[in-house]
């Protein structure tokens, strides 16, 4: 049967053995490129390994409400921090205002005490003046009473009493008591 073939024709190609394929469960280990290793990127994974990851391990994109929630949480946290910061500032301002009020009240208390002490000393001085005035009034009353008694017997005293119209004052009438 060898003779059935054309002697000028090329012989049929030889059959090759099929190549061994790597299993998808365990990819071959690859060492990182020397340039990456020098920069501390030893954990660099080639794209083939990332694409071969099972679906459960790949991060899923969030959609709709979950994506909005991821945006809302930092915004709410920032708002809470700003609110607490403003509250702390308000408390500091209130504390300084209360401190100022306390100092002001202390100064007012000191002023009131000094005014009270001055008033007490002025009252004592006025009391002395009133007592002196009463003594003088009593002595003038005694003098005029003696002058009026003397005017009954002495002409010079009578002339002084008539010239200055000196009389004994009648005591004021007391109002009737209410029943």
Topology (elements, then pairings):
Layout: H1 34-38, H2 47-51, H3 65-151, H4 155-164
Give an overview of the whole structure.
This protein is 60% helix and 0% strand. It has helices spanning 34-38, 47-51, 65-151, 155-164. The chain starts with 33 loop residues before the first helix and ends in a 15-residue tail after the last helix.
Provide the succession of SSEs: HHHH
By secondary-structure content and strand pairing, the structural class works out as mainly alpha
**Chain-averaged pLDDT:** 79
The largest sheet is:
none
Q: Regarding quaternary structure, how should these chains be classified? A: single chain
What is the straight-line distance between the termini? 169 Å
What overall form do the CA principal axes indicate? rod-shaped
Q: What proportion strand?
A: under 5%
Relative helix content: 55-70%
Number of helices: 4
Total strands: the figure is: 0
Write down the Rg.
Answer: 61 Å
Low-confidence stretches: none
Structure at a glance:
This protein has 179 residues and is mostly helical. The protein has helices at 34-38, 47-51, 65-151, 155-164.
Features:
single chain, 179 residues, rod-shaped, 60% helix
């Amino acid at each position: 049967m060898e003779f059935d073939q054309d002697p000028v024709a090329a012989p049929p190609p030889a059959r090759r053995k099929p190549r061994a394929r790597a299993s998808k469960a365990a990819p071959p280990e690859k060492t990182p490129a020397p340039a990456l290793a020098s920069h501390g990127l030893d954990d660099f994974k080639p794209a083939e390994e990332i694409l071969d990851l099972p679906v459960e391990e790949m991060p899923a994109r969030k959609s709709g409400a979950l994506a909005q929630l991821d945006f809302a949480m930092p915004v709410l946290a920032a708002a809470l921090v700003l609110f607490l910061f403003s509250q702390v500032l308000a408390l500091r301002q209130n504390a300084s205002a209360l401190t100022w009020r306390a100092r002001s009240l202390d100064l007012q208390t000191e002023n009131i005490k000094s005014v009270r002490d001055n008033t007490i000393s002025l009252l004592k001085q006025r009391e002395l003046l009133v007592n002196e005035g009463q003594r003088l009034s009593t002595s003038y009353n005694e003098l005029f009473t003696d002058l009026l008694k003397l005017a009954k017997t002495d002409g010079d005293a009578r002339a002084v009493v008539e010239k200055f119209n000196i009389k004994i004052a009648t005591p004021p009438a007391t109002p009737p008591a209410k029943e």
